[in-house]
């Protein structure tokens, strides 16, 4: 079966868990900006965690299905409208398995909180894998549909999947909601924390930052507070999503999934893995703070989250 | 991990050896290894370095690194030299050649000769897919980046930044000074290996005429 893009919304790409392991070729990880919402969406339609879905940014799109199938919309809150072949519309809802009728359309509205909304479909989107992943990396034109954002008229092949149990998420226990609403990012100290000195680390832990307008999947540019960057050049070295770089101007950049695997600005801290999905839901003008934790605590938080997620998946029958 | 304090051939040998040893070692929980000028970054699954099993992982990494250290004299791409055809002609293909030559007190011909007669080594591939950071640039050609980076550098552009030279595989923003362009594809995910340049590889640039450039470029777009 296939999905036809009627309208892609503001910016939509095909994403999965990313092209991890290709740093030595200069290839960015890419993948879903909010991995948690992608994973839950996949489970709601009976998929494995890592199948590809459509990631929409700020304003959702409209999609037409040639066969009846199960879908789930997760991530930032948005209206979901399902219209059948005859033109009868109904609200579809989020965080639940919904049925997309044959030759019907699903329209996703504007995100009311958060930045990214995922449309997951039973069987996953099966655009051709590139270097082991279907994730779209727009800056280098890899993956997804010709390495670019979706356009009206694109036809997305869908894989064969097993029928999903119709599941509705108990909102109170939904770990995906955390990624959409959290505004305090837990961080561990970075590779160059020592050269920044105490003052910069204290500022990082105390100050409030605002997400800048120029933020995208490559990085979030933070404004509002300045960190004193160490003088002298850094020799280009390896980087990862979640690293917080400080250019000479002092406004930090939090690297996103599309960031290059090497970079030349010093890294004061790195967002803990447990909070990486939160980064993907931040939008321009959101205010964020940082809380410095140690590696042990970061692992415990991650393991707790994974446990909650497993229990949750067990409840929805995934 | 930092393997040297400054960029040098010795640093490159250490990085190459540690990178290859880690790639081959199959360390539990390790998902990526990214070499650079003086460092190798190993990326692990969340918790892999603090879990109860972490001591074993760290011991394993130490063992692999120590083993690589003792073997670092072995160059990884001995013998083979990749040859990249470059057209150094025209304001469209070589927009910064005249300025760079003037700034260095050289003629354009001298810049081309110096650049194409040197042999380079791929220190690492980073920034964008297939972008090799080449060391070995003759001192006389060292020139800082542009004050204002270009918003779009065409794919195949050959540039100089400080003591480095390299080729932009994709059209991206960039601040390197552009002295020529190659018609060949540096990165193709459908090709094996996808990147023409890999860490440790030796490289030469071969000057070609504008006619030859157009011919190779049209052959590529027709393929």
Describe this structure in words.
The complex is a heterodimer of chains A (318) and B (223). Chain A has 318 residues and is α+β, with helices and mostly antiparallel strands. Chain A has 2 domains: 2-169, no CATH class; 184-306, Cyclophilin (Beta Barrel), CATH 2.40.100. In chain A, 17% of the residues lie in helices and 26% in strands. Chain A has helices spanning 35-44, 176-181, 193-196, 198-206, 276-279, 295-315; strands at residues 2-7, 12-15, 53-57, 62-65, 69-75, 80-83, 89-91, 98-100, 105-108, 116-121, 155-157, 184-189, 209-211, 219-223, 237-238, 243-245, 253-255, 262-263, 267-271, 287-292. Chain B has 223 residues and is of the alpha+beta class. Helices cover 29% and strands 24% of the residues of chain B. In chain B, the strands form 4 sheets. In chain B, strands 3-11-4-5 form a 4-stranded mixed sheet, with helices on one face. In chain B, strand 7 (157-161) and strand 8 (164-167) form a beta hairpin. In chain B, helix 1 (9-25) crosses helix 2 (54-70). Chain A binds chain B through residues 20-27, 29, 130-131, 139-142, 235-240, 260-262, 273-274, 295-296, 298-299, 302-303, and chain B through 6-7, 19, 23, 31-41, 43, 46-47, 49-51, 124-131, 133, 169-170, 172, 187, 189, 194-195, 198-199.
